[in-house]
Amino acid sequence: MRKKIVAGNWKMNKNAEQTEDLLNELIEKMPTETDVQVIVAPTFVNLASAVDHLEFINIDVAAQNVHQAESGAYTGEISADMLKSVGVDIVILGHSERRAIFHETDALIASKVNTALEHDMTVIFCFGEELKDRQSKNHFNVVENQLRDGLFQIEAKDWDNIVLAYEPVWAIGTGETASPEQVQEMHEFIRETVRKAFGSDIAEDVSILYGGSVKPDNAKEIFSNPDVDGGLIGGAALKSDDFIAIVNAI
Ligand code: 13P
């Protein structure tokens, strides 16, 4: 079943106290009745406390990364088993910042996806073209390749644990949003690409989120497109009023 989802990617923001404050504000402002799955992704060090904090409220907690190996000599890294052991079973993978700043390749992302799925985690799989790709009208190719090389190694049964997040790099943190028409056009293409590789049932069921400068004042228009099932929110997820306004815009 295709779900409506709004996820907040907090990136490298909020210390322990600030995390608790923002979570308290979200708890207070969350709509009591909603069919939207709301997810927050604080930093690693605040995940366990976030899970505890949100125990009695319908907000799920995601990690922003995971290492592909099970355990061992990987200084500074965090495994899927560690995340699961503190109650986190959702992970964001393939984010453009991980690709660009930390040089994550499609092959590396694919192995992280495989590890997360082996641990029965849900993967929010991010992908999206850079400005130069759109300017050279290569954006559909880039997106198709990212899907094929980073995700399509999975099996049909794994799709229950996959959420797609299309984030055009040129719209992330820039204040520049893709137009509702550009978003719908790409989401339709993504669903078609999934359909060709895995069939109609999977393509219809998978949730495809849009990310890139989503704000309270543009969320409704973006979410009203038939192939947009929610959003992955950066900057606006750090302010409780904005984030909840976006949740309420679906
Ligand atoms: P902004 O909403 O700040 O553009 O960030 C989007 C994003 O990268 C979410 O993962």
From TrEMBL:
Chief location bin: cytoplasm
Pathway in which this enzyme or protein is active: Carbohydrate degradation; glycolysis; D-glyceraldehyde 3-phosphate from glycerone phosphate: step 1/1; Carbohydrate biosynthesis; gluconeogenesis
Catalysed reaction equations from the record: D-glyceraldehyde 3-phosphate = dihydroxyacetone phosphate
Domain of life assignment: Bacteria
Enzyme Commission no: 5.3.1.1
Residues the entry annotates as binding substrate: 9-11, 173, 213, 234-235
InterPro entries assigned to the protein according to its UniProt record, in alphabetical order: Aldolase_TIM, TIM_sf, TrioseP_Isoase_bac/euk, Triosephosphate_isomerase, Triosephosphate_isomerase_AS
Protein name listed in UniProt: Triosephosphate isomerase
Naturally occurring in which organism (per UniProt): Flavobacterium frigoris (strain PS1)
Gene: tpiA
